[in-house]
Amino acid sequence: MTKKTFKLFDPALAVPAIGEAFRKLNPAVQWRNPVMFVVYAGSILTTLLALQALGGEGDAPAGFILAIAVWLWFTVLFANFAEALAEGRSKAQAASLRGLKREIWAKKLLEPHYGGKWQLVQGNDLRKGDVVVVEAGDIGQSVIPADGEVIEGVASVDESAITGESAPVIRESGGDFSAVTGGTRVLSDWIVLRVTANPGETFVDRMIAMVENAKRQKTPNEIALTILLVALTIVFLGVTVTLLPFSLFSVEVSGAGRPVSITVLVALLVCLIPTTIAGLLSAIGVAGMSRMMQANVIATSGRAVEAAGDVDVLLMDKTGTITLGNRQASAFLPAEGGDDAELADLAQLASLADETPEGRSIVVLAKQKFNLRERDIHALDAHFVHFSAQTRMSGVDLGDKQIRKGSADAIRRQVESLGGSFPASVSHRVDEVARRGSTPLVVAEGKRVLGVIELKDIVKGGIRERFAELRRMGIKTVMVTGDNRVTAAAIAAEAGVDDFLAEATPEAKLALIRQYQAEGRLVAMTGDGTNDAPALAQADVAVAMNTGTQAAKEAGNMVDLDSNPTKLIEVVETGKQMLMTRGSLTTFSIANDIAKYFAIIPAAFVGTYPQLAALNVMGLASPASAILSAVIFNALIIVFLIPLALKGVRYRPLGAATLLRRNLAVYGLGGILVPFAGIKLIDVFLAVTGLA
Amino acid sequence: MSTHAWLLLGAFLAVLLLAAKPLGLYIAYLMEGRLRIGRPLENVVYRLAGVRPDEEMGWLRYALAILLFNALGVLSVYALQRLQLALPFNPQQMLAVTPDSAFNTAVSFVTNTNWQGYGGESTLGYLVQMLGLTVQNFLSAATGIVVVIALIRGLARHSAATVGNAWVDLTRATLYLLLPLSFLIAIVLAGQGVIQNLDPYREVTTLEVTRYEAPRLDAAGQPLTDDKGAVLTEPAQTAVQTLAMGPVASQEAIKMLGTNGGGFFNANSAHPYENPTPLSNFVQMLAIFLIPAALCVSFGRMVGDGRQGWAVLAAMTLMFVVAAAAVMSFEQQGNPRLAALGVDQLGGPLQSGGNLEGKEARFGSADSALFAAVTTAASCGAVNAMHDSFTPLGGLVPLVNMQLGEVIFGGVGTGLYGMLVFAILAVFISGLMIGRTPEYLGKKIEAHEMKMSAIAILVTPLLVLLGTAIAVMSEAGRAGIANPGAHGFSEILYALTSAANNNGSAFAGLSANTPFYNVLLALAMWFGRFGVIVPVLAMAGALAAKKRLPAGAGTLPTHGPLFVTLLIGTVLLVGLLNYVPALALGPIVEHLVLWLGA
Question: Where are the bilayer-spanning segments (chain B) (predicted)?
Fold first, then answer.
């Protein structure tokens, strides 16, 4: 997915949205939004009244009814436009995804291993369980034909089509980097993969479906809000309907004026019901999902996004999330009386053939600290001893020199078996390093123990600040790691997480999540490994890393395409923004009613009771202009608030009370005051131009 | 407002708030079933009624029990009125009440409205007063209490399927809360001079001959009118006055304490035998607010956070102070038309001053105005002055008090559950505004709760507005209006508002004892009461089943000044917006006409 952002009223989106706004006048579409349907019905009614008045027999001057009818239609159209605009943005994003689904040819293997016979098939014909091979230089730019799991081989893969990230990533069989996504490209080497999704169920299909369905699936809070809005509409319907008898009665007893016209009642009804929020409601939801996509997060439903706004506890894997994936050598600590340069020299020799990130980091550190160059391993006549699970050591044999590095226990056994002894100073060093949260690696030559290499977990830059932000949002962060308690505590302190779970097994993770849930907390979990899948499935909000395994992705209800674990902050913010925007506009909408009453009530009844002119606090020019101004304000405010609906009310991690006070001041107090000014301005404009 | 008025209001609130805490804690203790000393007596009742006291009920069973209990109440009060001539304790030989009036009165007393289309001393015998009305005064109050207790349990419990046992709750509230307190208050009132006897009415010869204008009646006994519709009168005189008697003190106490408000006499608490002194007046006002205020404290205790209760109580108190101060100052202002005639309406040592039409001289304008604010803020409906004669804005405030849904203290139980519905609405909107699924006391507010709150909040305004519309449109409805113009509209609006919100006070003026009004208002009362109780209980059931979430940094605190402000804002905005047009055509126009001239 290209990270395309649109300007708010980008003509490419706004122009089609105008057409769409008219198409949405279909009653079947309007019916889905009960509040706007009332406006729609009011528009039709006033139009008929206007036609009747033009025929010479109206309940108010024809020009007035016509003006009201026109602005009621505008109200409906503006709401349609807002929805169409939000959908347009989403559709544009979906379209760029759909580009990925062009025709792809796949080399389907008849036997599930590399080098076997294959036949060329259509990507769409692949089914779950099929095995295909993808090689660099294949036809069609080596596009991976379907979501799958690598079962053989290693390749660098360009995932920019999905993530927008241009740096290629390594995909290999086994482990946590085995999942590949259809639509991405193999850049070098080859992989054999087993297809894990049928056509129509792939990742890209799900993304497109999510974008296109965003407006249809209402989230729980949206449903609850709709109930409230409908209830308010029913009450106001009662208010306006009964106003006619009240008016008839008042005219009769006062013997003055005329009963209020149907047109004015419809105008009052439309002004009172919460059209502002109702007109923008679905746009807010669609825009929220759109924002998630811009943050490169795919959610399986709006429900999941909304739930993210409520998260109390965030569980994160240490490795790859809080710390960089690999430990790095950070110090050479020689045994008592030893020389650190010698230690570094031997440590480097022992690591030259060690291709693990740790091994490489030792070579790098030796070069940085003691300027030891990498030696040509072939010239040394060296015999490398690779790490094995039995010995738990690795190293090199140089002639009769046996250099080994490994865990303290393993080296102790090795040294003692050769008749040497493990110096107390080294034991001391080992404990010290472990307490710091680092991993000690002991180096020995023969039976002589030289010292300790400190392998440090590197906490990601800036992560402390991110956790502080989560804390301000009211979210507790918990680090989950397989390390021992001492190491875990040290890293937890350095990273600034609130709590940690050490020596975690998949069962322990699951138990921890259940425990938090039993306390009534909403738990979010980010993870990437297969062993995270049960925990992800149990968590309320589960963000799987795109780099993670297929199992993890299936278990999560969101996938982060950037594989950035602190992305949850954006997810939470988006979830909260969707709610805040709805809540703020609801408050604004209801608060607006006060000013509208001051405009319409005196205007509607001043003929019956001239004293009611005292309530015309805005000094509106005439009853007709007052009512028309209120209706115009009610329509225009929808347009003015479209940017807010699409961008969302900004979330700040301030604490509930402060945030509420701020939003109440802006949308509550603002909602009371703004329409007074707005209606007055429109009235002045109408009076000056002589339109009413 | 005069110094006297401020002192009165201050003393009233001080005593009320002091008494609320111990009583509230006692109610919580009682309703949680911890009053062991009361068990033996309770068990006798349970055994007689065949109730298994340990059995808990789900919300639906609870609601059905309440509905059944109240329907039986309507039947029994109806039957008592219709059969009173055949029953004992009827020294005046009162005739059977007409079916429509009996129906209206039965519904009225069962729903805790206590709207009185009839005149007590001229319609009902002592047995009906005692066995019908007084009993319902207790039971309707108990109904309100148990419904709010069920709602509180819904908030306090978690992952529970039940909300309590309706029969046990009703028994406890009646036996150990309402009865002892009423007894105490009855004694105090009797000490002030409220009568308590079963004697026939007394005829006394007055010192002076009273001359008055009596309506001229035709052969059928109907008043004659001239061609403009005004009643024709003729001079009359009398030297004999009939003094109505009865068991008043015992009914008076629960009339106030249970926020019932149905007077023994037609003149209600303006009658010297019901409310003889300023002190009895003070006690009566206190009795009205006592349980509604105390229940807030019980609520805090039962949900395990006292501050929650105080926040609700603070919101109620603040709104009440504004309302009371408004009525008191509008009434003290007097009438500009009288001022134009040179009438001295200023308060001083010799007179209370202000607008005294329809008020008792022994109470003056301040005590009458405060009483009006209290009785309408709570859904009591007892009156010690004629609200019809208040200044337009002085009459608007009681109207608004009721239209807000009777949540400023409100009726016993009903006030608190109404307020909690508003609180749920307030946290819903504010929860959205801070970007969290709204929760109240750790309970998530979701679609089902919104649906129930919406119904609870919709029912009364619709009843009031549609009822008023029907009344002003029909001949039968207009026939009852006493005053022309906007005031006539106010009278009808007031009657429907009072009935649908189960207040029961009357603007007087309106002649409502007609089949039309008796039936219309009875329907408004019944649906205004149970149209709210059922959704409230449904909500209680749903809340009880939910988990209780612990409060965190992201949770909106519901006990600080911010929440109190929010709650008040919600009550005003949601409660009042529905009535603005109606109020504009009634009291507001009257006010403008009175002060700005026609």
Answer: 6-29, 62-80, 126-152, 173-195, 282-303, 310-330, 407-434, 455-474, 519-545, 566-589
